[in-house]
Amino acid sequence: MSESVAARLQGTGANALELDGVARHFGALVALTGISMRIAAGERRAVLGSNGAGKTTLFNAITGDFMPTAGRIKFFGEDITDLPPHERIRRGLRRTYQISQLFKGLSVLDSIFLACRGVSRRRFSLLRPAVTDVSMAQAESILNAVHLEGDRDTLVATLSHGQQRQLEIALALAGAPRFILFDEPAAGLSPTERRDLVAILNALPKHIGYIIIEHDLDVALRVSDYVSMMHNGRLFKEGTPREIEADPQVQEIYLGGRHG
């Protein structure tokens, strides 16, 4: 999908995600209550909040890892509330996880190639890929997009923590995603690696929207168009990065005073 198509979708009010009254209970524990959100095609949204606010549970409901107890979820206008995770993936939804989930025994390029092949029509082929293989070409392009071109043949197990985070983003980019959920991609990164992460996210094609959960506000506010704050499983406050950063209540609850 080109930038012009993304602009047309946004101009007609099309939404990538629509959540209406989404709730998730674990027995007597209420993890999410009445979450309603509209996220436009191509929008970059940050979801912030303290530990236990319900952010990852929200991601799990969107991806189908945990089915919502109540409410409905639409993805580009289609109701996906009851679809299993693999069907949501086929429709262009991707995510990363707080804890890296990688094949440590593969090379970087092979990992990305398998991710690309896994969402293609040839995913069950056992033939060795040709030089002109489309999935291999996609993998090479993604390799460059996440700044891992110098590590194409490196074993995943030997990558630094920051490089493994970059590889996770690469896997999420496989197969032309329409929307990605990033779960704390900056966790454990050095200041230099965080700057690289910001550059990678800001350079993603404009038609790829995403939600980012992130405790590092310097990262979250630099890569998002809009911010949703969560507290005790509910939406607490929403606004632009500048509005959220300047909000006295947000500063008191989440920032421990003024954020500089």
From TrEMBL:
| One annotated Gene Ontology cellular component of this protein | plasma membrane
Task: Identify the keywords attached in UniProt to this record, alphabetized.
Answer: ATP-binding, Nucleotide-binding, Transport
One GO molecular-function entry: L-valine transmembrane transporter activity
- Pfam families xrefs: ABC_tran (PF00005), BCA_ABC_TP_C (PF12399)
Q: Name all ABC transporter domain ranges.
A: 17-257
- Keyword Transit peptide: yes or no? no
InterPro entries per the record? AAA+_ATPase, ABC_AA/LPS_Transport, ABC_transporter-like_ATP-bd, BCA_ABC_TP_C, P-loop_NTPase
Output the GO biological process annotations, alphabetical, semicolon-separated. D-alanine transmembrane transport; L-alanine transport; L-isoleucine import across plasma membrane; L-valine import across plasma membrane
Q: What is this protein called?
A: ABC transporter ATP-binding protein
